[in-house]
Design goal:
258 residues, alpha/beta, seven-stranded mixed beta sheet, two-stranded antiparallel ribbon, 9 helices, 9 strands, 16% strand
């Protein structure tokens, strides 16, 4: 009987919970308050201690879940818009394990226990879905941060998918980069060998955040590749639609070549 058989997998999953739950509790109860303190401290001399602490905390968080993060390429420094394919909540942690960037998130997350607290302290920009004024405010805030040399991030698909197909990229999200004359760096997120675990990491039908979180804690160890691709500079595109098409093309090619 091998380890991948249906009879063995529940036993292995129980064993993973047995040793991962105490590690997760320690990481949340001990390491998280330290992280929030260092984020509040911010910069010491020429070093952003809060940003470094967030990268460390995120990497260890993913390690507890069995995610072995592998980075390819380098994130641009300064005011850059990072855009990535969207599989699940894991994407945000994977990106934060490499670079501090302010994400766009639905406003409801702000009130979630612990998650909302952490999101607010990691420069999240909140959006009220279906509210045109809120979207305009988000675009303005993103452009302001980019001009100030701070990184922002977005998922141009507009939401999570089943993890298999890459959805269309909405061009409007790139308005801030055009307005701020800032570079856009596509990032391909690939879970498992050759991206074969995308559908496992993704939300299953009728699966909410908590159920997915618990299920992922029991999953086998697998690589999580964060691929920073060639940036899209001002001469590479024709407006926000051109950026959207080029960013999607580069991410799709990277996923297919994994």
């Amino acid at each position: 009987m091998n380890a991948t058989s249906p009879a063995v997998e529940p036993i292995l999953r129980a064993c993973r919970y047995l040793y991962r739950l105490p590690l997760l509790a320690w990481h949340l109860l001990v390491h998280l308050p330290i992280l929030l303190l260092l984020l509040a401290v911010g910069q010491v001399g020429d070093h952003q201690v809060g940003h470094a602490a967030l990268r460390w905390w995120a990497r260890w968080f993913l390690w507890i879940f069995g995610m072995r993060v592998i980075r390819e390429g380098l994130p641009l420094a300064g005011g850059t818009m990072f855009v990535a394919n969207h599989v699940s909540w894991v994407d945000i942690v994977a990106l934060h394990s490499q670079h501090m960037m302010g994400f766009i998130a639905k406003h409801e997350i702000r009130s979630w226990p612990l998650v909302g607290w952490l999101s607010t302290h990691t420069e999240t920009i909140y959006l009220r879905r279906g509210n045109a004024d809120s979207l305009g405010g988000v675009m303005h805030e993103m452009a302001t941060r980019l001009r100030a040399g701070r990184a922002v991030a977005a998922f141009p698909e507009g939401g999570t998918r089943e993890g298999v197909a890459l959805g269309p990229f909405h061009a409007r999200i790139f308005t801030a980069a055009v307005a701020a004359d800032a570079p856009v760096q596509p990032v391909a997120l690939c879970y498992g060998e050759r991206c074969q675990a995308q559908s496992i990491v993704a939300f299953a039908p009728r699966e909410n955040f908590l159920v997915n979180f618990v299920r992922m804690l029991g999953e086998p160890s697998r690589p999580a590749r964060v691929c920073f691709l060639e940036p899209i500079l001002h001469a590479d595109h024709d407006g926000r639609r051109g950026i959207a098409q080029l960013a999607r093309s580069r991410i799709e090619h990277a996923m297919q070549s994994a």
